[in-house]
Amino acid sequence: MSEEKKRNIYFRNWMSVIGGILSVILFAVILFLFVLDFLDKGLNPYLGIFTYVVVPVFLVISLLMIPIGAWRERARFKKLGHVQQFPQIDFNNPTHQKIAFAAWGVVTLFLLFSMVGAYRAYEFSESVTFCGRTCHGVMGPEYIAYKNSPHAHVACVECHIGPGIDWYIRSKPSGARQAYLTLTNRFNRPIPTPIKTLRPARETCEHCHWPEQFYGDKEVNHKYFLPDETNTEWKARLLVHVGGAKPRYGQGEGIHWHMKVNNQVYYIATDEKKENIPWVRQINPDGKEEIFVEEKSGYSASNPPKGEIKLMDCMDCHNRPSHHFKAPSESVNEAMGFGQIDSSLPYIKREAVKALVGNYKSNSEAKAEIRKRLETFYREKYPAIWESKGKELQSSIDRVINIYNVNFFPEMKTSWKVHPNNIGHFISTGCFRCHDDKHKTAEGKVIRKDCAMCHAIIEQGKPELLETAVAGVEFKHPEDIGEEWKETKCSDCHTGELA
Ligand code: HEC
Ligand code: HEC
Ligand code: HEC
Ligand code: HEC
Ligand code: HEC
Ligand code: HEC
Q1: How far is the CA of 493 from the centre of ligand 6 (A)?
Q2: What is the pLDDT of residue 181?
């Protein structure tokens, strides 16, 4: 028997043979999937996982089976008394030359494919498809809210990981842990916030937005509908004084100027969600320090609550830039404002909100129940409307169900209630966590609740009786509640369920 044949013998064992056959098949499968993925443009969330993670793992295992089988075979031969010999390679021998070229070709090809594969695996692990859709049960609520947000074209990793290799490496263990919890069905419902490992906002958000770039006011238009029979309309148009740190025009001013660069605001929250902030320290540009403490909280400047002192940043106001779960009254107002829910249907505001806040176990149950409730209401209370406006009613009901599907996730126990938005003060406490006239320094200076400080109301009232003034008008509450709106926080009454 020639030397070569003798060495080939080592590969003639079941393990190496199976490994070889499997490798060829799996390689062909990968090529096929690769072409599919190329044509598919990421439409199927599972294709990527198979092409770049699952199948390559099996390919590597089957490739490893070939030398392992040969090695075991060699050990067996050795036991039987065969002499151990290293292969003699002779490049003058034409057969050896051919084998060397072939081996070199195969290895190069394999390395090339591995590189493309590894790059695609990296790309895929960073993709919106992987983050948002592959684990759809878990990330469904965030993914759907994201798709409806101004950031729908910003990849998840831009905010959750950000640029640079260090955070990429830091993110992988927690990503792997999350994948494990998902596979074993042991994740939290809802996913708890604030996320403790989120990268500081200055390093992610400021990649695209930075305070020097903001200036002036932002106009915001709101339409409201009261829960009466005619769904009385009420408008409010605000100029929100967004301001900036170093605006191109004029002096720094407004919301961002104060919060970000010239002044620093530190605070201590007494709960995980940062809803209660009894202690605030402000450091002015000249270095002067002022400490505001909430009345009746029992704390003082020298006796702060336990807990970390945090420097306020983007996320303390913009905590839902991409995953805003809207409250029922807010989303019904919006849909009615755009005419997608017909405001000529009597009591539709009140009834739609009532239907949305029902206690449902799943989206399919909600779909059936919402339809049933609204149909029953109009059939029984307004038979004439039921007859004459059937089409409008049905399309309005469809819209209400759609509101439910993009804002309520009973399986993940997720809704506006567990993830309040801190950007205003209407439905969640937001700015009024500090700006309530009740956080005081020892000298009696307060964190102001002055309505004109953050925005000017330039239009307000019923559409036919609008008060308009460019300099701003005094707020008028749509329903007569006396001076109550000055004393009580809006969100104490407006929980989002009020029709
Ligand atoms: C514009 C930035 C941004 C983008 C883009 C973004 N997120 Fe988020 N995400 C956040 C912020 C901010 C939070 C809230 C952190 C907190 O409250 O601690 C958050 C929270 C979450 C949470 C925790 C649960 C919750 O609702 O607060 C999950 C899960 C999540 N994001 C998944 C995703 C996925 C999946 C994508 C892509 C489909 C994505 N995010 C895209 C900024 C972003
Ligand atoms: C990769 C770039 C990118 C990153 C990172 C990013 N954003 Fe944005 N952001 C955008 C784009 C694009 C828009 C849409 C602009 C538009 O509609 O004119 C936007 C819009 C916004 C708006 C205006 C929303 C509105 O209703 O008009 C806010 C507020 C905002 N981003 C806050 C944030 C915060 C907070 C973060 C960090 C958690 C962040 N962004 C991270 C690109 C980014
Ligand atoms: C004190 C709270 C607060 C902080 C801190 C804050 N913002 Fe804002 N930001 C606001 C408010 C309020 C608005 C107006 C939002 C609205 O009415 O929709 C706004 C608006 C914006 C807009 C939209 C601007 C426009 O003209 O449309 C962007 C972008 C933005 N913020 C990004 C950031 C970034 C990035 C940071 C961190 C560097 C940050 N903000 C810090 C409260 C804050
Ligand atoms: C952690 C506490 C805290 C939160 C939350 C907070 N602020 Fe402030 N803010 C302060 C302090 C402290 C001051 C300085 C005292 C004052 O001017 O009343 C201030 C001042 C301001 C000023 C005055 C800036 C100037 O030109 O003098 C504006 C505008 C402002 N905040 C807007 C907001 C808005 C809008 C929100 C909600 C999106 C908000 N703040 C949330 C602590 C906070
Ligand atoms: C610390 C800053 C601040 C103060 C003080 C403040 N607001 Fe606001 N207000 C905001 C912000 C930010 C928003 C969100 C703007 C938007 O709709 O995007 C808002 C929104 C509103 C809205 C629209 C609500 C909605 O979301 O539909 C009304 C109405 C309003 N404010 C009235 C008042 C009145 C009345 C006062 C005085 C009692 C007041 N605000 C004090 C910052 C402030
Ligand atoms: C004492 C409770 C109470 C307080 C405090 C209060 N409201 Fe109201 N608000 C009501 C009631 C009751 C209605 C009647 C309609 C309803 O049930 O929605 C209403 C209706 C409204 C509406 C129109 C209906 C809608 O779509 O929600 C707006 C806008 C509104 N309030 C703004 C505010 C703002 C802004 C503040 C804080 C400055 C505030 N309210 C404080 C009780 C309150």
Answers
A1: 7
A2: 77
Summarize pLDDT for 410-437 with one digit per residue, the tens. 988 999 999 999 999 999 999 999 999 9
- DSSP assignment of 68-128: HHHHHHHHHHHHTTPPP-PPPP-TTSHHHHHHHHHHHHHHHHHHHHHHHHHHHHHHHHTSH
Residue 282: inside a domain: yes
Residue 425 and residue 392 share a domain = no
**Counting ligands in written order, which one lies closest to the CA of residue 486?**
5
For the sheet with 455-461, list strands across it. 218-225, 233-240, 455-461, 467-468
What is the number of the ligand 3 atom nearest to the C-alpha of 313?
5
- The whole-angstrom separation of Cα 324 and Cα 151 is 11
Determine if ligand 2 sits within 6 Å of the CB of residue 195: no
Its domain, for residue 107, covers 3-125
CA 452 to centroid of chain Cα atoms: 32
pLDDT tens column, 61-78? 999 999 999 899 888 888
Q: Tell whether 390 and 291 lie within a shared domain.
A: no
**pTM for the model:** 0.87
Closest atom of ligand 5 to 477 CA is 35
The two beta strands, 218-225 and 279-283, are unpaired
Residue 303 sits in the same domain as residue 354: no
Final residue before a domain boundary, out of 125, 146, 174: 125
Ligand 6 atom, smallest distance to 486 CA:
38
Closest residue to atom 32 of ligand 2, CA basis: 321
Q: How far is the CA of 447 from the centre of ligand 4 (A)?
A: 7
Check if 312 has its Cβ closer than 6 Å to any atom of ligand 4.
yes
The rounded Cα 429 to chain-centroid distance in angstroms is: 21
